[in-house]
Amino acid sequence: MKKLFLMKNPDLFQGQKYLDTNHNYFEGWYFKNTNETDGISFIPGIHISDEKKNAFIQVITNDSSYYIPYDIHDFSFQFSPFLIQIGNNSFSKEGIHLDIQDEKEHLQIYGDIHYSNHVQIKTNSFQPNIMGPFSYIPFMECNHAILSMQNEIQGVIHLNKQKIDFHSGTGYIEKDWGCSFPKSYIWCQGNHFPTKKASFMLSIADIPFKIFHFRGLICIFILGDQEFKFTTYNCAKIIKYSINQDSFDITLKKGIYEFNIQSRYANRLKLMAPVKGKMEKDIFESITATITVTLKKNQKIIFSETSTNCGLEIV
């Protein structure tokens, strides 16, 4: 599979060439599903290092999280249409099928969710995905892609004795791949604003780049058919940066636009993140955080609302 084709289609499995090696590598997709009161995110993926080669599925809900390991031979994929399978579970942009039985985690999950009406970011040759021209750099420690800023979901998931009905729910899909997560970063995402056609994602991370580091910024806000990007590669600036363990207040500026984001944790739960291909770093995420965003044009507020059911990590 040609590298340029994979770059322009980041939903596809990028790591086929590593499956028969011990090269430090990870790849994981993030499928977030929410209704008015409940949420559940699934993170299927693989990790490869000198010591082991495994597939996994991580699960995070409003109040619990789980890590389910699989043999690498339980992982399979196809390019057209995009589909990955881990054990009896399948994931695609059309939906997911779950059949997880894990006695160690005391976990039983089964059900189906269907996706439709994806809201996707705009791309071109300069910006084949959200990382822009950095997508062309082969030695990035971690690559990031947004596959769906917002999508409609239908279906039911059974989690142990709980039934979660996602009738007219809202979804979000992204992914990461490379060898390690950033040493420090913040990430947040929200698409449960009172204005239904609004969605948002922000990541600010310490990025190693050969012999130096820099603070990388990717932020996108979509309002109806308008898209606002604040990124390192389009010369956006961070003019306010206040952060602590459970909240932050950040202001970005690009040209005549100013964008303020205020976010706060609700319930942090442990997930595992890769370091040189090994799933050995504890990180903490909430999918019940709140995010307030305010967009100004020439100092005049054109949008200011709060989203519930948000994803938030501060590492």
Ordered list of secondary-structure elements with their pairings:
Layout: H1 3-8, E1 25-34, E2 39-48, E3 53-61, E4 65-71, E5 75-78, E6 83-86, E7 89-92, E8 95-102, E9 107-119, E10 142-159, E11 162-165, E12 169-178, E13 185-190, E14 198-209, E15 212-223, E16 226-231, E17 237-243, E18 247-254, E19 257-264, E20 269-275, E21 278-297, E22 300-314
Antiparallel strand pairs: 1-2, 1-12, 2-3, 3-4, 5-6, 6-7, 7-8, 8-9, 9-10, 10-11, 10-12, 13-14, 13-22, 14-15, 15-16, 17-18, 18-19, 19-21, 20-21, 21-22
Considering DSSP H and I runs of 4 or more, what fraction of the residues is helical? under 10%
Following the backbone from N to C, one meets helices and strands in this order, namely: HEEEEEEEEEEEEEEEEEEEEEE
Terminal Cα span: 34 Å
Q: Give a count of the beta strands, DSSP E runs of length 2 or more.
A: 22
Strand content: over 45%
Q: Biggest β-sheet: count, sense, barrel?
A: 12 strands, antiparallel
Task: Give me the secondary-structure category.
Answer: mainly beta
Shape: globular
Indicate the mean pLDDT.
94
In words, what does this structure look like?
The strands form 2 sheets. Strands 1, 2, 3, 4, 5, 6, 7, 8, 9, 10, 11 and 12 form a 12-stranded antiparallel sheet that branches. This protein has one helix at 3-8, and strands at 25-34, 39-48, 53-61, 65-71, 75-78, 83-86, 89-92, 95-102, 107-119, 142-159, 162-165, 169-178, 185-190, 198-209, 212-223, 226-231, 237-243, 247-254, 257-264, 269-275, 278-297, 300-314. The two termini are 34 Å apart. It is built from 1 helix and 22 strands. The longest helix has 6 residues, at 3-8. The chain has 315 residues and is mainly β. The radius of gyration is 19 Å and the shape is globular.
